[in-house]
């Protein structure tokens, strides 16, 4: 009994030091670290398939687009991840300016059209995702409304305090909504429109898909989303309708890239190569990932993913990335005021 | 007279003690001073010199100025309403004979906010009063918007008023009922007595409670993140948004620095001004104590009704969390399901594991450190004791957002790089939450006569044996308090740790927040319930551990 | 084995807020083996500090402490083998009586049966049996005192230090306990230093008393010597009651000195041993104990005064008499059946026996 106290002290300290050694040693293990903005289920499917194909384990974390960017910047001198998967192309452009990425042209990316990848190889698009409207059918019926077919339809006072959409400060969805409106109406008009729209907004959500479930459940009437999140709701069986404004929308490019100073550049390149293959993009279909493959050779069977009938506005990704901060600043000053 | 210069003897320093002392100084320098210094450097040094450019930029934004004013308005509002609630409850408990069931309610609402994650009341409030909320449906108010000042204010008041209650109970208990008797005997009515004697005597206590709540609200990050929406920005969330949304670490640091100033002022006011006059007006123990006087029958009935209502509402909110975790989609599909818990134990399992691990390690290290600091500061004549005590409490006093950002800046580059490790989270929890242990140890040691330790030395025990066999058992209750607090807060913290989670180490509270931002309330509720259960289990285990280690655990309180 | 204690130039200076306070000032003291010496003095005179330096709780600023032949000045407290009884007993509240007493033995890693035997023996020694399993707060003050004593005696210390051990007890128990402690100390033959501010306690218990004032030793002597032959005005005033009359030396012849006090000349003997030096014309303090003054009718050999108060105490009568100089003189007379009781306001003469008068320098 007398020695018990001593022994326990020794054991505790031994465990502690062991623990810290393990903590640091863990960091050195050959595993790929990644950030993604894709939802849990999607990202899980992709990374699991990669591990299955290559035997390389992936540690990954999901954040909204803005958070990923902020983290990369904070960790600039000591990168915690090797690749970013699924972030918006314009975010990569912004990141390249800040020196967060290294160029790498993955093998297999030749088949991806030039519009969906960076000429220097800083980012490679893996999927395309247009902006759309998603509304709760029951709400529309109760208020005798048709699904909106124009940006102007959203200004209907019937929607007062009933719309949920993403905050462009944190969310790529929010940013692409803003870009869509700008492309459709011109910048100054777009901000006037956003200001008018804010009367009808219940809450700007932090993440892009944030408003989808409340709308599906009837806590809000509708909102503006990426198609992927809207389709997710519809496929889960919620009573929602998807529509597009006749003035047109912008389609987001979801891309991947190599983090500058990555601690496991070889693993990262292996992943980028793998993710550029048709095999990877075929996983979308297999796993109900509602994204449009960037590689035209991958067949699309789902009619909801056929975007040939909607008006897709062109977007200069370079311009969007370089003007991002200014656009967000202006949004705060003119819309939130 | 002999000269003092020759043959002068000095107390020989104990090498082990000096090593420990140095170790603590190094720890505090690295994990308290260094991050704050880096934060200040980032804010005030740009373009190669001292400049106010960053602060200017932050304050040129009307949105940030609004956030600053909002923060102060919110903190004042929460301070006032929370103190009022706290006083109402404290007065009822100390001056009115309450039914047992009401007393049980009250003890429950004091424990609940402490053991649950910080946004629990926010989630519940959203489920009840948010869009399509339960009560809104019942009361047929479709156009009610909880997001903004109102929701934040209600949620923070409900979360923090127990702090005011505990403070004020102590104050009211110390007011001698004989004073009230004296007033009554001079012909004053119960209500008049309350207004002219009891209330004025509680003013220092009320001021203290107000400042405590003001500080808590000012630093609160989780509640406004969930409740404030875009119409009511406050500083802590604004700093977070600046970093996560605008990719602007410098700006975030500047905003958090702005937050640091009022927080420090409140602390200094509370510490040096209020505590100084705390007991001045309260007379000492009188011989015979008369029965406490209420505030008059009608007033008593009203108070009883009000506190019962508030208590029931709070308990209702917390039960909503539990119910919400067991249904498919809250308010839409209320069929019973366990799939939310399945979610916690599959997708969320890593976060659960990581959080428990971090809490365990932090608790282990932190409680030892807390005792060591408390003991050294109070029992040993070592240089810089006061400075050390102040430093050891600094991380606790400052808002979590400030510390989190300071850590994120300090340990991502420079000589010490800890980003992405567990060490950084553990260091933060330890340096921030061992404060309670230090304070409890200090308070207990002040009650223990040093002669007990001297007696042990005199009987032949070494310093270490004395510490183990006499000091530690005597301060065991304080250690237990510190340990419990450390574990609970390491489990429930978010304001600072949210800046430090990484691919390899994630936290339950961050997962809950993610669920909330994705509006997955059922999963958030399930996570919260699991967290509360873990905390409850840990509290029980700590209690068991201490009662096994120190069988006379409850004896010490009876005095020496 | 019993040993002497020797304090050599012991000095302790406390520094607080930049000011130095000399609590103990060059104390030299030899305590013989088996002797009980009390340190007596008003509060703040440094007596507890001396005790704490001997025990090793404080480090002397200067000087040395010898126990037997060993210089223990630099030896840590737990290696000195000294028994120390604290004023507040310092019983460990989280241990039973048995564990309290066994504490020192367990530290010395004695076998369990030996510990049990010695604890039982120690409890017998202080006449306290059957309370082994109680906790200190379940005992009365007197019982706690005995446990504290048993706890130090059980380790068979070389010397015993006691810091006002009886001050928390009521008057009756105090008198009983001091006898008991003294008896025990004699039986064990242990060298003992006993700190007190209660002069009756000191007189009753000590072989010798060291009177301390402001960190300095005023006098070390047997109780009798101290009372009859105080070395300084402080000692005279502190021990027992004394009337102090300040007169002038009018003539000195060898060991005899005439002192003039308010018209009356007293011829007193100069204490040669103490080497007091008086010159004619010096102010001289005359110390007279209240019991060595006789009251009678006033004549030219006596001081004349008026009785201010008469207090009947049973075995004796205490008078306060205001003499012509304005001084208030205290006089006690033993009660006898035929004694005359002077009433307040009565004029009396005070007769001082020159042999009972001590002359001390002012």
Describe, in plain words, how this protein is organized in 3D.
The complex is a heterotrimer of chains A (337), B (560) and C (362). Chain A is an alpha/beta fold and 337 residues long. Helices cover 43% and strands 19% of the residues of chain A. In chain A, strands 1, 2, 3, 4, 5, 8, 9, 10, 11 and 12 form a 10-stranded mixed β-sheet that branches. In chain A, strands 6-7 form a two-stranded parallel ribbon. The longest helix of chain A has 25 residues. The N and C termini of chain A lie far apart (70 Å). In chain B, helix 4 packs across helix 7, helix 7 runs antiparallel to helix 10 and helix 24 packs antiparallel against helix 25. The N terminus and C terminus of chain B are likely disordered. In chain C, the strands form 4 sheets. In chain C, strands 6-7-8-3-9-10 form a 6-stranded mixed β-sheet, with helices on both faces. Chain C has a 5-stranded antiparallel β-sheet with strand order 13-12-11-14-20. A 5-stranded antiparallel β-sheet of chain C has the order 15-19-16-17-18, with no helix packed on it. In chain C, a hairpin with a 4-residue loop joins strand 17 and strand 18. The longest helix of chain C has 18 residues. Chains in contact: A-B, B-C.
The two chains with the largest interface, and their residue counts, are: A-B, 58 and 46 residues
Low-confidence stretches of chain A: none
Task: Indicate the percent of residues in helices of chain C.
Answer: 10-25%
Mean pLDDT of chain A: 85
- How many angstroms separate the termini of chain A? 70 Å
Task: Quote the beta fraction of chain A.
Answer: 15-25%
Q: Whole-number radius of gyration of chain A? A: 22 Å
């Amino acid at each position: 009994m007398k020695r018990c106290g001593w022994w326990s002290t020794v054991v505790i300290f031994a465990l502690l030091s062991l623990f810290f050694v393990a903590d640091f040693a863990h960091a050195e293990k050959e595993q790929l670290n990644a950030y993604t903005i894709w939802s849990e289920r999607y990202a899980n499917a992709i990374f699991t398939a990669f591990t299955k194909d290559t035997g390389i384990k992936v540690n990954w974390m999901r954040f909204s687009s803005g958070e990923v960017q902020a983290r990369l910047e904070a960790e600039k001198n000591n990168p915690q991840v090797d690749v970013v998967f699924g972030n918006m192309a314009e975010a990569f452009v912004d990141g390249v300016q800040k020196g967060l990425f290294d160029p790498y042209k993955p093998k297999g990316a030749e088949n991806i059209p030039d519009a969906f990848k960076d000429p220097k190889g800083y980012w490679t698009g893996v999927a395309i995702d247009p902006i759309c409207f998603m509304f709760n059918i029951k709400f529309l019926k109760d208020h005798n409304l048709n699904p909106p077919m124009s940006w102007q339809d959203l200004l209907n006072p019937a929607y007062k305090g009933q719309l949920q959409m993403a905050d462009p400060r944190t969310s790529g969805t929010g940013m692409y909504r803003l870009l869509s409106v700008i492309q459709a109406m011109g910048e100054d008009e777009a901000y006037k429109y956003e200001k008018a729209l804010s009367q009808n907004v219940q809450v700007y959500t932090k993440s892009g898909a944030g408003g989808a479930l409340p709308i599906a459940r009837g806590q809000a009437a509708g909102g503006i989303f990426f198609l992927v999140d809207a389709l997710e709701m519809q496929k889960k069986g919620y009573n929602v309708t998807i529509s597009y404004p006749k003035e047109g929308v912008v389609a987001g490019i979801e891309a991947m890239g190599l983090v500058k100073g990555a601690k496991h550049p070889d693993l990262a390149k292996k992943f980028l190569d793998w993710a550029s293959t048709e095999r990877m993009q075929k996983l979308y279909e297999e796993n109900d990932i509602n994204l449009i493959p960037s590689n035209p050779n991958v067949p699309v069977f789902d009619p909801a993913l056929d975007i040939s009938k909607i008006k897709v506005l062109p977007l200069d990704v370079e311009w969007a990335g370089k003007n991002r901060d200014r656009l967000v600043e202006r949004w705060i000053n003119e819309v939130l005021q | 007279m002999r000269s003092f210069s020759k043959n002068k003897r000095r107390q020989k320093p104990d090498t082990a003690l000096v090593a420990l002392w140095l170790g603590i100084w190094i720890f505090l320098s690295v994990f308290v001073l260094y991050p704050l210094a880096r934060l200040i450097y980032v804010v005030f040094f740009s373009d190669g010199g001292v400049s106010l450019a960053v602060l200017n930029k932050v304050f040129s934004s009307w949105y940030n100025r609004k956030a600053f004013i909002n923060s102060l308005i919110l903190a004042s509002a929460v301070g006032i309403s929370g103190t009022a609630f706290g006083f109402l409850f404290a007065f009822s408990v100390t001056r009115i004979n309450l039914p047992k069931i009401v007393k049980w309610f009250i003890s429950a609402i004091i424990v609940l906010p402490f053991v649950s994650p910080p946004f629990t009341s926010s989630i519940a409030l959203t489920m009840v009063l948010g869009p399509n909320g339960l009560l809104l449906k019942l009361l047929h108010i479709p156009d009610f918007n909880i997001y903004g000042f109102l929701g934040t204010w209600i949620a923070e008041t409900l979360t923090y008023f127990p702090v005011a209650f505990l403070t004020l109970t102590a104050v009211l208990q110390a007011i001698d009922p004989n004073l009230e008797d004296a007033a009554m005997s001079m012909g004053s009515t119960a209500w008049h007595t309350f207004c002219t004697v009891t209330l004025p005597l509680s003013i220092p206590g009320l001021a203290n409670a107000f400042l405590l709540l003001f500080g808590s609200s000012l630093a609160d990050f989780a509640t406004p993140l969930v409740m404030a929406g875009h119409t009511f920005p406050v500083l802590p969330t604004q700093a977070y948004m600046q970093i996560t949304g605008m990719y602007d670490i410098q700006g975030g640091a500047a905003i958090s620095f702005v937050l640091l100033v009022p927080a420090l002022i409140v602390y200094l006011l509370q510490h040096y001004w209020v505590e100084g006059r705390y007991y001045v007006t309260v007379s000492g123990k009188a011989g015979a104590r008369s029965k406490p006087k209420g505030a008059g029958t009608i007033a008593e009935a009203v108070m009883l009704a009000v506190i019962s209502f508030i208590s029931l509402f709070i308990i209702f909110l917390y039960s909503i969390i539990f119910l919400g975790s067991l249904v498919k989609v809250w308010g839409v599909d209320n069929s019973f399901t366990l799939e939310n818990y399945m979610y916690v134990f599959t997708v969320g399992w890593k976060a659960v594991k990581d959080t428990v691990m971090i809490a365990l390690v932090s608790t282990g290290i932190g409680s030892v450190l807390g005792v060591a600091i408390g003991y050294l500061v109070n029992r040993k004549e070592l240089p810089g004791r006061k400075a050390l005590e102040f430093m050891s409490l600094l991380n606790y006093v400052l808002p979590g957002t400030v510390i989190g950002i300071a850590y994120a800046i300090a340990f991502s580059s420079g000589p010490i790089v800890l980003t992405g490790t567990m060490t950084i989270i553990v260091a933060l929890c330890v340096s921030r939450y061992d404060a309670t242990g230090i304070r409890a140890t200090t308070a207990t040691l002040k009650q223990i006569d040093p002669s007990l330790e001297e007696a042990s030395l005199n009987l032949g025990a070494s310093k270490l044996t004395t510490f183990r066999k006499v000091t530690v058992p005597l301060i065991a209750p304080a250690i237990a308090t510190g340990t419990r607090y450390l574990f609970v807060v390491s489990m429930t913290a978010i304001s600072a740790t949210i800046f430090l989670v990484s691919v390899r180490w994630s936290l339950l509270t961050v997962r809950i927040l993610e669920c909330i931002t994705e509006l997955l309330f059922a999963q958030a509720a399930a996570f919260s319930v699991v967290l509360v259960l873990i905390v409850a289990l840990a509290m029980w285990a700590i209690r068991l551990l201490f009662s096994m280690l120190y069988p006379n655990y409850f004896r010490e309180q009876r005095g020496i | 084995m019993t040993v002497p204690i020797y304090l050599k130039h012991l000095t302790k200076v406390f520094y607080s807020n930049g000011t130095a306070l000399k609590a103990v000032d060059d104390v030299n003291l030899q305590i013989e083996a088996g002797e009980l010496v009390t340190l007596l003095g008003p509060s703040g005179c440094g007596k507890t500090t001396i005790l704490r330096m001997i025990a090793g709780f404080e480090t002397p600023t200067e000087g040395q402490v010898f126990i037997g032949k060993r210089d223990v000045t630099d030896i840590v407290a737990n290696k000195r083998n000294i028994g120390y009884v604290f004023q507040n007993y310092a019983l460990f509240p989280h241990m039973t009586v048995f564990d309290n007493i066994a504490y020192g033995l367990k530290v010395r890693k004695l076998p369990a049966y030996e510990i049990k035997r010695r604890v039982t023996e120690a409890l017998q020694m202080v006449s306290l049996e059957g309370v082994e399993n109680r906790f200190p707060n379940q005992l009365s003050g007197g019982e706690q005192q005995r446990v504290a004593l048993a706890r130090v005696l059980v380790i068979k210390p070389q010397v015993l230090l006691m810091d006002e051990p009886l001050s928390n007890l009521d008057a009756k128990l105090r008198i009983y306990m001091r006898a008991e402690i003294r008896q025990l100390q004699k039986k064990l033959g242990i060298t003992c230093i006993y700190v007190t501010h209660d002069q009756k306690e000191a007189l009753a218990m000590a072989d010798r008393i060291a009177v301390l004032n402001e960190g300095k030793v005023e006098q070390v002597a047997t109780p009798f010597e101290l009372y009859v032959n105080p070395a300084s005005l402080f000692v005279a005033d502190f021990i027992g009651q004394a009337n102090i009359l300040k007169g002038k030396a009018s003539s000195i012849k060898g060991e005899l000195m005439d002192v003039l006090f308010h018209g009356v000349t007293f011829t007193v003997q100069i204490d040669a041993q103490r080497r007091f030096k008086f010159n004619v014309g010096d102010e001289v303090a005359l110390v007279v104990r209240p019991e060595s003054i006789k009251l009678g009718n006033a004549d030219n050999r006596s001081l004349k005064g008026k009785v201010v108060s008469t207090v009947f105490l049973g075995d004796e009568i205490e008078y306060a008499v205001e003499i012509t100089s304005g001084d208030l003189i205290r006089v006690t007379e033993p009660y006898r059946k035929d004694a005359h009781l002077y009433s307040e306001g009565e004029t009396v003469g005070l007769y001082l026996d020159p042999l009972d008068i001590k002359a001390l320098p002012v």
